[in-house]
C-alpha cells in the first residue's frame, strides 16, 4: 500500500506540474497575443476617407488633454508638439534666420520625408478646410482626394532643372489647433509602401500641446529646442524634490516669500544635449 500510495502521489505531482506548466504557457501565449493585438491596433483609418473622424478617441494626432491620450512619456518635446520615437529616422529643425525661432520639424525616413507644422485654429471651427482651399486656389496643378487622414492635397512641385517633386499634404483639426503634414518621396505616392505606413503611423502618434497663449488663427504654435524624455524626467524629479517634505509650510500664516538675499538664491540651468540628428536649417 505504501509503495502504491507513493507512486500515486508522484503521478499526481507530475500531473499538477504539467498542468501548471501548460497554464503558464497559455498565460504567456495570451500575453503575447495581447501585445500583438495592442501593437496591431490602428492608429488611423486603414481606408481612404473624405472626413477624418475619431481623432482623440480612436486615432491621432492627439491633444495633451484628450481623455484617451496615448502614452507619450518617450516622445521628444518640441514645445508645440511631442514627436514619437521611430528607429532609423533623422530629424531636422527649421528655424527663422532672423530670430532663430524654431518653426517646424522635418523627419526623414528612408527615401521619404515628413514636414510637420502646428497652427493655432479658431475655437468654433477647424482650419484645414480653408487652408486646403487656399492651396488649391494658389496652385493650378494641385488636386484633392480622400486619404487616411481625410481629404488631402496632392501637390507636384517643380524643382530646378525641370524635375517634378510629388508631395502629399494632410491636415488634421484638433481643439484650437491644426496639425499639417507634408509627405514626400515614397510616402507621397505609394500608399502601401513600408515607408508610407511608418510615417503615417508617426504622424498619427504626434501629441499636440496648444497651450493657453493667445494666438491668431494660422499662427504657428511656439516651439522650442528639443527636450529628450530623460531630461523631462530629470526636471520633473528636481521640481518634485524642491517641494518634498515642505508641504506643512504652505499653511503657515503670513509666511514670507523667499529668497531673502542673493546668497540664498539658486539658479538652475538645464543644458539641452543634442544628438547628431538635431540641427537647425535655414
Automatic annotation (TrEMBL):
InterPro entries: DUF3710. Residues 262-273 have a biased composition (Polar residues). Pfam families: DUF3710. Residues 11-27, 243-258 have a biased composition (Basic and acidic residues). Residues 1-58, 231-282 are annotated as: Disordered. Residues 28-39 have a biased composition (Low complexity). It comes from the Bacteria. This is DUF3710 domain-containing protein.
